[in-house]
């Protein structure tokens, strides 16, 4: 892969990562509720799932998006239900508490990672996206382990940059919600975003 191809790949993945969808909505809602730093493991879970799809695409496994349609449907339903639960928690959260307060420490980190992984894994179209444009940058008939490692690292950096940029921008809006009334609006707004993400995830065409 040439430098020009690698740079173009990086930019396209970045744009793909910040395109509105369930993952972006979840990042925004969490950043509004608990700040940008709390989104790191959530975003990392999404990115790990994306990279697994990317690797599958490199090996020409697009067929799984069709042959395992029922499995992906189940994952999508479970993911949507979880997002709806989080949305309800945020909507009903007391003003004095963070909308996404939950287990802290290692348990909280694992749950955040699993949440992000589930959100991304529930969208089998990700693998189709990678298959659609990978041939533009790589000779897919002569892929080496180094090529796959390179595109995986580029994807990791690009997606994390995009998602954390969104988290930072969303978190900056928290300063406008310091009074109890505004904090209540923040909780309900973040909850609405998460519920919207759940509906988007559940109702999107397979």
From TrEMBL:
Membrane topology: Multi-pass membrane protein
MF terms (GO), sorted A to Z: amino acid transmembrane transporter activity
InterPro entries per record: LeuE-type
TM region positions: 6-28, 40-65, 71-88, 109-133, 148-173, 185-203
Cellular compartments annotated: Cell membrane
Pfam families noted in UniProt: LysE
Keywords assigned: Cell membrane, Membrane, Transmembrane, Transmembrane helix
A cellular component annotation (GO) from this entry: plasma membrane
Protein name per UniProt: Threonine efflux protein
